[in-house]
């Protein structure tokens, strides 16, 4: 049986509350759900990239910051009506 990656669902849930960078997401998780779910940056960023490829999220550059930090934003999926 394949193991389900719950990180994707946790990250998507966090992003529906507030868009943010990988750092912002990690900081939010550590301060809110960190007592029962904990991920490191080495796992968060690859999952964010895969979610972007699956068109669940998109990213934009925050040009207000010097390092042009990437901000991740959830996308609204269109539901096909029969």
TrEMBL record:
Residue stretches making up the Transcription regulator PadR N-terminal domain: 11-72
Name of one Pfam family that matches: PadR
Domain of life of the organism encoding this protein: Bacteria
InterPro entries: Tscrpt_reg_PadR_N, WH-like_DNA-bd_sf, WH_DNA-bd_sf
Protein's name in the database: Transcriptional regulator, PadR-like family
UniProt source species: Clostridium scatologenes
